[in-house]
Amino acid sequence: MKKQIIECVPNFSNGRDKSVIDNITNQIKLVQGVKLLSVERGEATNRTVVTFVGEPEKVIKAAFLAIKKASELIDMSKQTGEHPRMGATDVCPLIPISGISMEETVNYAKKLGKRVGEELKIPIYLYEDAATKHDRKNLANIRSGEYEALEEKLKQKEWKPDFGSTSFDIVQKTGATAIGARDFLIAYNINLNTTSTRRANAVAFDIREKGRISREGGTLNGKILKDKKGNTIWKPGSLKHVKAIGWFIQEYGAAQISMNLTNIKETPIHIVFDEVCKKAQERGLRVTGSELVGLIPLKSMLDAGKYFLKKQNRSLGIEDSEIIKIAIKTMGLDELEDFNPNEKIIEYNINDDNGDLCKLSLVDFAQKTASEAPAPGGGSVSAYLGSLGISLGTMVANLSSHKRGWDDRWEEFSNIAEKGQKLIKKLLDLVDKDTESFNQIMQAFRLPDNDPKEKKIKEKAILKATVHAIEVPLEIMRTSLESMDIIMEMVKNGNPNSVSDAGVGALCARSAVIGGYLNVKINCKDLTEKKLVNEFLNKAEKIKESAIKLEEDILKITLEKI
Predict the structure, then answer these.
(1) Which end of the chain is more exposed for a tag (fewer CB within 10 A), N or C?
(2) Does residue 375 sit in the same domain as residue 333?
(3) What range defines the domain where residue 239 resides?
(4) Exactly one of 129, 429, 432, 434 is catalytic; which is it?
(5) CATH at 480
(6) 0.85 surpassed by pTM
(7) Helices marked H in 121-268 — which ranges?
């Protein structure tokens, strides 16, 4: 299963006292598995914006600790600043980044809000996607009147907080906090071959959702049009969820269109880039490149790369790093400075080097397997064999997608290669999962059993770990068998010059299935639940027989073609 990652961007009502902010951010650093990405202090606004990411449970734990520390160190009855605010922790949004839905993120926002309200008594208003009432969706509505209006607001039934105290006497120091879930926002600038701010603004107005003021005849000097109520009429731009303005950057000697992309699901970065290119060209301008301010989710970069590959009739079933290279080069993200995916892509930025097997070189993996340690063992090697098998099948699909004379079939093979890439990633993930399952069994056996209660806890832990240690190789078997369907398709219909490669892929995949089968069998010996044992063995037997038969059929066709 793909790791779930969310981002948290709490805003604290202090930007002038570094020691206060250091104390708050140190709380975040205490939570293992959470990575602090940025701390932006504003002197004039007296506000600090903090960004950190990680798995959901760890993130909301870090958020709680930070909110708690802020409530201890920031006194809202004495706080002043340029930025609107209503609490020591003014706002705390959670943003889904990877492997998690907005609905799940909302549940975490509510969980965090409930804990803060109950344990710290701070009034909590849920906003954006987590809002419980329509008029609380917009943060500006909740924060209206700011801290100074909070005492009266807490007395009003319609402004009763979702969690926390309604007594201003209790929360006079902390104020109130808005906790919510929202989409990821990308700050993105596109570079133009002009020094004219006015011309950059013209393109910005063409594309931004707000658009430009409507005038008679559509001319710059035409009379401003108004509706019956006397309100100015605006002509919307071509892109929704985009805020944009043109400016000149002295450092670069060129104008840019500076944008906030507020809903990258509906209006992704690659669509914005293409639309700006189109509108700039209509005005006699050229886009020379672009600049990403802050970080971007991996999916956005992969979607962009695939979008541009598809325009070239190229296979999309290639490794992620190559897809990302296409996105970087097409959008000119490296024009102004080096674009390092490991720093700019959120998932890569937080991917600490923890010694996972798949990060080892081929030589190191072989030597680690050959060492005296019992893991990695046959299960991890079986998963790796399976990944090599489907890698060969995927290679044949990619070679077939650009075979001379097969241009009209590129999409057919691209789709197959994409499926292959998913199976490669799944099997590589199982390489580490098999070793993890072995370690879990060892940990379970080390639990104390000095009394009946401890013995019961230990027995349950051993059962759970053993079942997991059977399920992992069973999944290796299933995934490797699934890969053999792709390999068969490539033997039958792929590039005939690579049929032997597909045949070798079948040998690897079948070996992976048999290897997984042996691990299921040996781990079932330690399972006391006979009904479960029979279920696991029956499933494993069927998969094994299917793989053996499929390998025979694939090799028969391979040898006939050779």
Answers:
(1) N
(2) no
(3) 186-349
(4) 434
(5) 1.20.120.680
(6) no
(7) 139-143, 150-153, 168-171, 197-207
